[in-house]
Design brief:
This protein is mainly alpha-helical and about 425 residues long. It has 19 helices and 2 strands. Strand 1 and strand 2 form a beta hairpin.
Length: about 425
């Protein structure tokens, strides 16, 4: 009768409920307190003794359920796509839960659900996840969020032997493939440039922008579809580490990421001019990729080189954003990681103070009669007070010393500053 209802036919549920209750009453009649019972109504108000119900009804019922859904599940797999199959399973599980309320004892609930889950999901999990045209990989490519969410929820039910582990493996493969596609696209671009006798461009942000977009997309999936599940986080981390540390050309990805940061801190992304808010947003996104780099020390060295050029050439657009970037690196890697970079910023900030004091020094020496000849030389030879940047040895990137013969004007400025400093 229950299988008839499962097949869509109407049955008399009250009659079925009364039949099922007979097994419970039989258990009470066999119990130790059965001699004191006066009526069936009084029996039904007692705590049930389910030995008879379990042995004579529940166990055969669960076997029949397994047989029914083994046949039905095979038919659904044959005719339906994976999303359609999972939707059928979701509906069937909901109906079985209602069935308990309609005419079964509540003690059957967990056993019934587990039987259905084992038969419809666990037994077919590998096929459901790996099916070529409608399995998980296809759903990820097509961005079928609702179907992916349903698969995730169902595979977490008690009775699915492997849980979500097969899903995390497919997810990792998908992310790795997407990252590899970005590397292939850069390789193709390098090849195209070579055919035109052009060099690979380190400042081209296309691949880094693609990686940032991929991170945003896949991280959104982990959070919204997979409840930020730890195993999905691990799969994503492994995938990003795999392709983030695999280079596509002459320049390593760590060099491309540093160049991207340099462009953002100069106020642009490719040809797009950025607002301060957009710059901060891009820099925050860079940190998500930074954590996947294997050689973070190389990033620090390259970042120092780029920072030195921005500061000395006055190319930075916001000292607040420079400090914010350093603060984020410090949070992720600890204070020693940013010691030299912070020293560079401090030197740069002291520049204005030093130059103001130097200007006062020149004025005071000009007013000193004993230094009249030197001050006269300064005022006539120098059209304006020189601006000097003092760099602390060890903080700034080292350069090979180069012999320079300074013109008299610059030699005079140098001697004045040395005397002042």
């Amino acid at each position: 009768m229950i299988n008839r209802e499962r097949a869509g036919n109407e049955i008399d549920r009250n009659q079925l409920k009364n039949c099922v209750e007979v097994f419970i009453v039989m258990g009470l009649c066999r119990g130790s307190g059965s001699k004191d019972l006066k009526s069936v109504d009084k029996m039904l108000k007692m705590n049930p003794e389910l030995d008879v119900y379990t042995k004579d009804f529940e166990e055969p019922f669960l076997r029949s359920t397994r047989e029914y859904y083994t046949i039905e599940g095979a038919a659904w797999l044959e005719s339906d796509s994976v999303p359609e199959y999972l939707s059928r399973v979701e509906t069937a599980l909901g109906e079985e839960e209602m069935r308990v309320g309609w005419y079964l004892n509540s003690a059957t609930h967990d056993k019934l659900q587990r039987t259905c889950v084992e038969t419809l999901l666990s037994d077919h999990q590998k096929q459901l996840v790996e099916r070529p045209n409608s399995g998980m990989y296809a759903l990820l490519k097509l961005e079928k969020g609702e179907d992916l969410r349903r698969m995730f929820v169902l595979f977490q039910l008690d009775g699915v032997e492997k849980g979500v582990a097969p899903m995390t493996q497919i997810f990792q493969k998908f992310v790795e493939d997407q990252g590899e596609a970005l590397l292939d696209a850069r390789r193709a671009e390098i090849k195209r440039l070579a055919s035109e006798k052009k060099k690979e461009n380190q400042s081209d942000p296309t691949m880094i922008m693609g990686m940032l977009a991929l991170y945003k997309k896949t991280n959104g999936m982990v959070k919204e579809l997979f409840d930020n599940h730890l195993e999905f986080q691990k799969s994503m981390k492994v995938a990003f580490q795999e392709f983030m540390n695999k280079d596509a050309g002459k320049f390593a990805n760590v060099e491309l990421l540093t160049a991207y940061c340099d462009g953002i801190l100069k106020g642009h992304e490719a040809s797009e001019k950025l607002s301060a808010a957009a710059m901060e947003d891009r820099l925050e996104s860079v940190m998500y990729l930074f954590v996947y780099l294997a050689d973070k020390d190389m990033f620090a060295e390259l970042y120092r080189d780029a920072l030195a050029k921005r500061l000395l050439n006055k190319k930075t657009t916001s000292m607040e954003l420079e400090k914010h970037m350093i603060s984020r690196l410090k949070q992720l890697q600890g204070p020693p990681f940013t010691t030299k970079i912070e020293g560079m910023i401090k030197d740069h900030q002291m520049c204005d103070d030093n130059n103001a004091k130097f200007e006062e020094y020149l004025k005071s020496t000009a007013a000193d009669g004993s230094a009249a000849s030197n001050s006269s030389s300064s005022s006539t030879e120098l059209s304006e007070t020189p601006k000097v940047q003092v760099l602390t040895l060890g903080f700034w990137p080292s350069q090979q010393p180069r012999p320079v013969n300074l013109p008299p004007v610059l030699a005079s400025a140098q001697s004045h500053f040395e005397a002042f400093y």
